[in-house]
Amino acid sequence: MTNLPPPQTPFPASLPNTPNNPNPQYSINKTPNVHTIKIGSWEIETIKKPILNGKEIDVAEKSLNLPLPEMTFGNNSLRLSYSPSSSSSTTTTTSTSLNAPSGQDQVQLKFDSIEALGGVATGEGWEERVGGGVKVSMAEKWSSKSSSNSFSGDSPIPSKPVKPHDWTFSTCYSGSVSGPSSFRPSPTHSLPLSLLARQDPILDRILFYDDVPLFEDELHDNGESILNVRIRVMPHSFFILSRLFLRVDNVLFRIHDVRLYHAFGSGEIVKEVSGMEVSYEQVKRHLEKPSDLSPLTDPNWVYQKMLSLPSGPSQGGRPWPGLGKRVEVLRLPKSDLEGIKDGLEGVKI
């Protein structure tokens, strides 16, 4: 029998190497559509604009080969840029230009509406090829939403969707990264949940917060599919939660969460990706008042109930690929000075 290695116990993400500074230097700039914070080596930007107009919708649908959700915030995004040499960039405008990164050391993270919709399954036979198809009596009709008149009583319903696609928009999008670093699987990292739950009025005060909607669709009044991303920046770290919340009435619930955590000075970003699927009836049984269905529209309430229920495919066919959980880590590049310092520390005299 092959001897298996002893199981590894996950440990929380690293904390800063330096003592927590309850008053870090940072700057915030706000315009009607763009909010930005610069703190240490980071520049974090949220962009929030109205839903796409008709011309923008046409361009996006042709690019994605996908009918867009009813409310697509195609110009919205969350962007984070890390430049190892720009830790002093929050002091003055002049220092920002002097410390501009070379480009090859800069790491950029992004959560973007159009990128997210690029992860929606499309094409003939996507249910068998990708998995996660939701079968309800009207699914094929909803999938063929090519025009506002497609469902009038006098118009024939096509036997096949005009553009076959996952009409629930169950994307498994977890953001994108560019630069010299990338996320790698880690069996030993975990999020510092106790730290994130702490509410110290000084150490954990919120320096910057935003909630960015990416898309929403009511599935022709038969549920909802919502994707948004939130970020909060504290003196010691930042935390991001991107959540896809899907409710198909009388069928199922799905939640796909992406959590990112970085402790300033730690040199790493931890990402946890998790997906759950539970039948509608299982969640509905937890209502305090069966006649009041309003909690079923609250993603946080549904999430808490789903945590206590077994998650898995609630319908036949190939399962949704978003199920399960994984943890990944991205190692941030070091500045030239940090690299020299590490090299000197390794020299033995």
TrEMBL record:
Comp. bias (Low complexity): 81-97
InterPro entries: Phosphatase_reg/MetRdx, TIP41-like
GO terms (BP aspect): TOR signaling
Cellular component, GO annotation: cytosol
Superkingdom per UniProt: Eukaryota
Biased composition (Polar residues): 15-30
Similarity field: Belongs to the TIP41 family.
UniProt region (Disordered), positions on chain: 1-30, 79-104
Organism: Kwoniella bestiolae CBS 10118
Biased composition range(s): Pro residues: 1-10
One Pfam assignment: TIP41
This protein's name: Type 2A phosphatase activator TIP41
